[in-house]
UniProtKB/TrEMBL annotation:
Residues 1-79, 79-140, 137-198, 204-264 form the VWFC domain. Keywords: Glycoprotein, Secreted, Signal. It is found in: Secreted. It holds the Pfam family VWC2L_2nd. The keyword Phosphoprotein does not apply. GO terms for biological process: cellular response to virus. This is VWCE protein. It comes from Agelaius phoeniceus (Red-winged blackbird).
Length: 295
């Protein structure tokens, strides 16, 4: 390429090619003295067959995280570190992208990372300044190991629930649902933890809470008013109906316990009862005579 190179010299060509100048074995020729006063004899060296041999530069990188080759260079350099795509200077201390309280340092192209060894313990609220605040202790309970927060039953008993909290096991009874049936209708089946409501028995009659009297199905009674009659239905309900009196007369006879007044048996006059066609003096005028006529 128009440039003279000394035999044995080495240089780098573009494209990271390492070249050297190689020649054949030299031959020596004596040179006569130029003047008689110059004693001795010198030699002239003649070089034959010079050629250039090139090969790709072989890089020896003695570090784990070298930086890319600088501009114009061929080999990476260990004067810094390349970690997760980020260039780090020599001696730089940093944390990786995943955090987790790990500390890394760049030394001679090598990245060394250290993670804190946290002793087992409780897990209070996480704090960025305390890397060990969330490393809860496991629970060893009856020959088995449980992780923090694990829930399990006690010896297969579903009635008891246990939880591992920071190395300690806390057990409690499984809460039962609130039942809406009276106590005498609750039952606890075999293998069950909580009581359930039994189906209410078929009604055998009608139970009245106001007076505590139970009437059989089909029973008819009056609840105190002679004009109202009630019947006990088959489903335990009570059905009542009032009686409307349609027969009227001026002086009806009212019989105790009977709903409607009686107009066919006689007359009621001034608190006295008179039979049909019976005559009697007037209470207002003794010269007047009255008679009871049923119409």
């Amino acid at each position: 390429r128009g440039i003279s190179r000394e035999p044995g010299s080495r240089w780098t060509e573009p494209g990271c090619q390492s070249c050297t100048c190689q020649v054949s074995i030299p031959s020596c020729q004596p040179i006569l003295p130029m003047a008689p006063s110059q004693p001795g004899m010198s030699h002239h060296m003649s070089w034959q067959g010079g050629q250039v041999l090139c090969d790709t530069v072989s890089c020896s990188v003695p570090c784990s995280h070298p930086l890319p080759a600088p501009a114009g260079g061929c080999c990476p350099t260990c004067t810094g570190c390349l970690h997760e795509g980020v260039a780090r200077a020599e001696g730089d201390v940093f944390s990786p992208s995943n955090g987790n309280c790990t500390i890394c340092v760049c030394l001679a192209g090598n990245v060394s990372c250290l993670s804190p060894e946290c002793p087992p313990g409780s897990c209070p609220s996480p704090s960025p300044a305390d890397c060990c605040s969330c490393n809860p202790e496991k629970c060893n309970f009856r020959g088995r190991t449980y992780a923090h927060g694990a829930r399990f039953s006690l010896d297969g008993d579903d009635c008891t629930t246990c939880v591992c909290q920071g190395g300690e096991v806390e057990c409690s009874f499984t809460p039962c649902p609130v039942l809406d049936c009276p106590q005498h209708q609750r039952q606890l089946g075999p293998g069950q933890c909580c009581s359930t409501c039994r189906d209410p028995p078929a009604p055998a009659g009608c139970f009245l809470d106001d007076n505590g009297v139970e009437f059989p199905v089909g029973q008819i009674w009056s609840p105190g008013d002679p004009c109202e009659l009630c019947i006990c239905q088959a489903d335990g309900s009570v059905s009542c109906q009032r009686t409307d009196c349609v027969e009227t007369c001026p002086y009806p006879i009212r019989i105790p316990g009977q709903c409607c007044p009686d107009c066919s048996a006689g007359c009621t006059y001034m608190g006295r009862i008179f039979s049909n066609n019976e005559t009697f003096p007037s209470a207002l005028d003794p010269c007047l005579s009255c008679i009871c006529l049923v119409r």
